[in-house]
Amino acid sequence: MNSFWTTCFAIALIFGSILLSSEHVNAAGTTQDDGPPKEANLAKGITAIDNADWSEAISHLKEAVKADSQNADAQNFLAFAYRKSGQLDPAFDHYAKALAINPKHKGANEYIGRAYLLIGNLEKAQEHLKTLKNICGNICKETSKLKKAIARYKENADKQVLLEEESNW
Length: 169
Known about the structure:
Elements: H1 2-27, H2 38-50, H3 54-67, H4 72-84, H5 88-101, H6 106-118, H7 122-136, H8 141-155, H9 159-164
């Protein structure tokens, strides 16, 4: 009989700790009752980027950055959405924040390089290409993509047409 009560006690402890941990989770604000977890806005922002819905992406990513301003990925995605929507000033601001958090962020270095091409600053774009080469050499996709964007920028006499076709580079 002793093992019966020991088993019952163990089961009670397990259920009790499950209930306590779920209350702790609720207190941390990770349930739907208290609002979405901070990762939810990041995920929704990325989905909106995938759908090229820049205003929706900006809305969710601003919330993600508000919840965790030290998330370099969230800063980078927010900058990307701003850049794609044509809002370059806030894009540069958030790329700078992403790079302040993580200077070796490959995505932020590539995308800020592209943003510099949009304003005609080839020298700064090349600086970020150099940074990418130092981070991952010539083999990572970010280095390759920024290198191609710079080459296309240099080759095209009509910079305005090139800039309007940014998605092609």
